[in-house]
Amino acid sequence: MDVSHLIDGLxxxxxxxxxxxxxxxxxxxxxxxxxxxVLVHRIAWLMQVEYASPFSVMAVTFTNKAAAxxxxxxxxxxxxxxxxxxxxxxxxxxxRILRAHHLDANLPQDFQILDSDDQQRLLRRLIKAQNLDExxxxxxxxxxxxxxxxxxxxxxxxIDAQFDPVEKTWLRVYAAYxxxxxxxxxxxxxxxxxxxxxxxxxxxxxxxxxxxxxxxxLVDEFQDTNNIQYAWLRMMAGNSAKVMIxxxxxxxxxxxxxxKIENISRFLQDFPGAETIRLEQNYRSTGNILKASxxxxxxxxxxxxKSLWTEGQEGELIxxxxxxxxxxxxxxxxxxxxxxxxxGGALNDTAILYRNNAQSRVLEEALIQxxxxxxxxxxMRFFERQEIKDALAYLRMxxxxxxxxxxxxxxxxxxxxxxxxxxxxxxxAARDRGATMWEASNQLxxxxxxxxRAANSLRRFVExxxxxxxxxxxxxxxQQTDYVIQHSGLRAMYEAEKGEKAQARIDNLEELVTATRxxxxxxxxxxxxxxxxxxxSHAALEAGEGQADEFDDAAQLMTLHSAKGLEFPxxxxxxxxxxxxxxxxxxxxxxxxxxxxxLCYVGMTRAMKKLYITHAExxxxxxxxxxxxxxxxxxxxxxxxxxxxxMRAKVSRPAAATGRFSQTQTQENFNQTxxxxxxxxxxPKFGEGTIINFEGSGQQSRVQVAFNGEGIKWLVxxxxxxxxx
Length: 725
Ligand code: ATP
Ligand code: MG
Hints:
The protein is an alpha/beta fold.
């Protein structure tokens, strides 16, 4: 067979990795050097040259999107399908194993996945039930504690907290939480891994089955694996599997979630004969982008050390824009994207990257105003939106009455007159009897403990859920979903809310029906699961990735973290300010500062041709105006790779001067109006305010003013009778 297409077009080092003898390998290389490409070619090589069966190959990546892309590329190289091959995320693969062996894993067949929101809701209830003050014992912290312990592979009985009263309390919460999850058949994200690891550890026949099956294991983005993931990999690999890991220590950005860069050196020790292959040629970015990112990362002390070069052109300089505020920043970014589109560029080729999810809103609004479609990865993901979670909770109740998290979510949504007191009674009864909320409710109703009105409301809920199941038993999943949205009262509830937001929620509910209609139960679980539980697992696992139609041309918005592994011709990194990026807290701690710098490196190296970096002098953060200096990361870039973008209006506040970029450039159109950004003005009707934005020129020009007490308004300069103050 001709296999030249598997190595043609690769450089020598890449070829060496793809065509290496069977063995254990670490491919260590910087961003854009073709690590993922090598992994994909290696998999095809194993099957076509080493005659490995697809059934003997397992590939692990970091996101569902990456996994789907990888499978697609492998099939392309194979000129066909690669069925039998396992390709997924750690969570996805563990989920699959647990489904197949739920009895051995001590889980009910229809176990459901608890996402972080549900987890916190459940924890809040348990913390209350322990008579702890939520102010001192916040659910969020409990979830950090529990997830961190699980990531370390620790169950409550492994932890000795007798000398630490604070930890002792968290431990109690952990134990209660685990009990509640086990009782209801709920599995959180960390549990997927831990439970699967324990399954392999304790059940010899299962372990031997997988160890015999997967002779080839390949892992992308290895630098971000945590302890339990590493332990799981070792367990899956056993003594005979050949493992290839690829990674970049400079791109380790999940230390805060327990990822261990040290896993790279552990791999070299633990896997016999493991060899390191280094790739040094970058194929992704222009010379300027590459030079600047290399320069930046050199400020980190702890590195395994790598150098990257490119044959590509120097390309355009990196543009730095210093915005007046976040609105000005968004306007700038959207203007550039619009111009790109006008020149025939695809929106899909543009990405806006930010440090925190909350930063997306202003950008979204500017994009909507400009009529530019966009897609958000992460953040308020589709499956995490309130109305979607409400509908899913009803569906979960249909599948599993013992799902306490779902019960809590919808027992009084839409409102049916169930007060906090009644709920508290149900919770207490559940706790005292070691029962689920559903069981406790039915018992209380039977024993006629509840007052007339409360009992009626609760009975209505119980009957509703039973009826939803009975009525939809014969329906296809999407009909069932539609029926549930109608008859649960959710749709009517949101219709009654009126307004744009409510309409968006209804649109989303409709989108959910579409999602269930498009959903196909994965072949490998068709026997074990109903379409409903398969869909619910899918919703929990894939929350939001690829929410919009994949074929729509849309600008891509995402956090820097979720941009890992991806590439775009044009990239905007926004909010690159001290206090935002690096954040205040991480700036004070060397280790965390280095991780932030790696995150900056990840962001910059996503760009293929053009990179914009923006920062705002003033930004509203949690309702407060904050003044920020340009980030030290901008100062760490070599000046000869940068250009300052000059298009902003004159800013009169002298305090605004930052960094080495001058701020005095004027924007002619705007100046003709006689106003400038940041200027205080007086309006006859709305009173005093500050100019925060503008658009248009001459007669058409409009300004946006933040009035004290009257909110933010757009005004046509010509008619507004604004007076400078
Ligand atoms: P990251 O660290 O960001 O995950 P990576 O090392 O995985 O990056 P890839 O995504 O595999 O890098 O490759 C970066 C880009 O370079 C891709 O567009 C890929 O197709 C291209 N590329 C890789 N190797 C070659 C090659 N030998 N010839 C041409 N293009 C290549
Ligand atoms: Mg990659």
